[in-house]
Amino acid sequence: MLAAAALELQGQASDVSTEVRIDRFTSFRLGGPASILIEPATETRLAAVGLTLASYGIDILILGRGTNVLVSDEGFKGAVIRLTKAFEWIRDEPPFVVAGGAVPLPQVSNWAARRSFSGLEFAVAIPATVGGSVKMNAGAHGSDVSEVLESAVICHLTRGELDVMSAEQMQMSYRQTNLGADDIVCSARFKLAQAKPEKIGLLMERYRSHRSETQPIEARNAGSMFRNPPGMSAGALIEASGLKGFQHGGAEVSAKHANFFIAESSATAQDVYNLMVHVQSAVREATQVLLIPEVRLVGHFDETLGQLAIA
């Protein structure tokens, strides 16, 4: 089915590749090949791709900047979709700022700041695309995307349909929305307010400095590994369990921020998975709190090895 789907897609356009390693598209720089890689240049093509894949029953993985994801060493037996530079644009429609789904969120934050638009200062150091940040309701410093998002253009891939959804319709809550795995954000419309540029600049610089001082931005990581439990910090729970700096294979709990896992040059995706399972188990034993992964697991991981890592 994969080969037949690839042939049909290649017959439609030249934006299709097969057996492509996708580690270079992830911030962990880990993961095996994808059976199919598609990089559509228009919303219409994106919808057509979705219908074709659905007709063959092919699994879909949407990749932006590749943060918040861990792809297995075996890769992904399905189709990876990445938005091209055709989806990297920003324009202002006062009081709104509208951006394509492939634009890095910090770029939108800086673009808005230069025009004295306030509301996206918190996003200046979030390593995600506009599409990914909307889909997971990304946030930092007590704010999140839901506070400024007015609406977004969504492609429901399995139906091949384009739709405009409001923030309310997406039921945005802490680090999640009701968008499915096969829904892709083509663009987003943010409602911002005018403010003094000096105030905006000072706040953004504080947020940049905080990230630099508290997160291992120079290392290969995928951002926060676990969601913060209600009223608690996942990083603090991991540190309190004595796991800061703990290492398994080529994967390590960051000594700078315990909710960040670092992949050394020798690391495998299985190493990171094993470390995740170990940390999850140790924290639960020490604190009775079950940490829920924020990083999405893609592909097959050896659960037996993961359980051995607990011992």
Question: Quick gist of this model?
Answer:
With 311 residues, this protein is of the alpha+beta class. It has helices at residues 2-12, 43-56, 105-114, 130-135, 197-214, 234-240, 269-287, 303-308, and strands spanning 16-21, 33-38, 60-63, 69-71, 76-82, 90-93, 96-100, 117-118, 139-140, 143-144, 149-156, 161-166, 183-191, 193-194, 247-248, 251-253, 261-263, 296-298.
Descriptive overview:
Helices cover 29% and strands 25% of the residues. Helix 1 (2-12) runs antiparallel to helix 2 (43-56). The chain has helices spanning 2-12, 43-56, 105-114, 130-135, 197-214, 234-240, 269-287, 303-308, and strands at 16-21, 33-38, 60-63, 69-71, 76-82, 90-93, 96-100, 117-118, 139-140, 143-144, 149-156, 161-166, 183-191, 193-194, 247-248, 251-253, 261-263, 296-298. The protein starts with a helix and ends with a helix. The protein contains eight helices and 18 strands. Strand 6 (90-93) and strand 7 (96-100) form a beta hairpin. By secondary structure, the chain is of the alpha+beta class. It has a five-stranded antiparallel β-sheet. A four-stranded mixed β-sheet has the order 1-2-5-3, covered by helices on one side. Strands 15-16-17 form a three-stranded antiparallel β-sheet, with helices on one face. The radius of gyration is 20 Å and the shape is globular.
